[in-house]
Amino acid sequence: MCALLLVGGLPATSAGDLQSQISAGKSAAVSLRSQIAADTSRIQLTTHGLADANQRLSRLQHALSAREAELGQAQRSLIQARDHLVDLENRLESATHALAANLVAGYEQGQPNLVSVILEAHGFTDLLEQVSFLHRMGEQDAHVVGVTRSARAAVARQAALLDTLERRDQTLTAQVLAQRNGVAALQAALLHEQISELSVRGNDESKLHDLNARVGRLEAKAAADAARAAVTGNAGVGGIAIDTGGMVQAPPGAPAAVREVIAAGNAIATLPYIYGGGHASFHADGYDCSGSVSYALAAAGLVTSPMVSGDFETWGEAGPGRWITVYANAGHVWMEVAGWRFDTVALAEDGTRWSQGGGEFTGFIVRHPAGL
Predict the structure, then answer these.
(1) How far from the centroid of its chain's Cα atoms is residue 113's Cα?
(2) What is d(CA 77, CA 277) in angstroms, rounded to the nearest whole number?
(3) Residue 212: Cβ-neighbour burial (10 angstroms; 0-12, 13-18, 19+)
(4) Which of these, 53, 211, 216, 261, is most buried using a 10 Å CB contact count?
């Protein structure tokens, strides 16, 4: 939270002065560096976990390849079993037709027996031939019946084998799909975690870069202000003198409203910075940035009640004024009066809200009171 506040708007003067802002910025930078180190440690752990997971994935992929090969062999066996079953069914059909044909022929023509063969034989040689023929017919019928029975048994066995192979094929297919889905889910989860952690660290590093740049600008500004104060001794700017009490004088010819604003600013110039000071009432023991500006402007009737800094973004008229210019955003407000900066940021350095020039300009809305 500190990092986001400082990166987004360090000039918000809840700290009261540049040095406190710089200190807060450096403290936030230390916190961000610690967070980045923690992010890096988590990423290293995830990277190690990813390496371990990749080894697991490699083993899973190896097992998956073996299972796919087994599935392929099972499917090839299944195809062969189906082809063999078709051949057996064709043989069974042929044997069945042959057996049926023999039975029909025997019924229609009459099956010869041994007595009729003996009686109808023309000699001993013919008798031997008839008996031999009768014996061959019996053997052929027995063979046809045997082939038919064997074919039927083979068809039954092959059908059972086919059923087993089909169930095995279904089981292997389900196992392969389950393992493949598990591998895909694990890969996706690991990649998502790695991307998320890298994104968090990148965001923290970006915040740290912006914060360091902001602290650098504040330190440069503090150094410039200190150098300027050392050279000039806060003697005066634009012909307007500042006395040892931290007060300023209105230049000759300044409008009455400007003189009244300067007089009111002098009245509270050295009072302490108190967050929220000057908002419950114009009279307070100390004032924050918007309370200070509201008090000084109210002396000339330019505001009628204390305003917060964000209110000044739409106050008065747009752009800089000839005598009074107000710079405001949601977190801070200050103003220039007759060439002098009236800003709580200068209080800690100079002991007065009045200072010579300077001030934050980037990110502020510029407004002025009508006619001034």
Answers:
(1) 96
(2) 90
(3) middle
(4) 261
The span from the CA of 298 to the CA of 333, in Å, is 15
> Residue 358: inside a domain, yes or no?
yes
Q: Are residues 52 and 179 in the same domain?
A: yes
- Is there a single domain that holds both residue 186 and residue 271? no
Same domain, 56 and 126: yes
Q: What's the rounded Cα separation, in Å, for the pair 150 and 92? A: 8
Beta strand residue intervals within the chain, DSSP E: 236-237, 240-241, 317-318, 324-328, 333-337, 340-342, 354-356, 365-368
Q: Are residues 323 and 174 in the same domain?
A: no
Rounded Cα gap, residues 94 and 158, in angstroms: 18
Cβ of 170: how many Cβ atoms within 10 Å? 11
Q: What is the pLDDT along the chain (372 residues), one digit of tens a residue?
A: 344 333 344 333 333 356 667 777 777 888 888 888 888 888 888 777 777 767 777 777 777 777 777 777 777 777 877 787 787 778 777 777 766 776 666 656 555 555 565 656 566 676 676 667 666 766 766 776 777 777 778 777 877 877 787 787 778 778 777 877 777 787 778 778 878 888 888 888 888 888 888 877 877 776 665 555 444 443 333 333 344 356 888 888 899 999 999 999 999 998 999 999 999 888 888 999 999 999 999 999 999 999 999 999 999 999 999 999 999 999 999 999 998 999 998 887 778 899 887 777 888 999 999 999
CA separation for the pair 80, 280 (Å, rounded)? 95
- In the three-class reduction of DSSP (H, G, I as helix; E, B as strand; rest coil), residue 213 is classed as helix
Prediction pTM value: 0.38
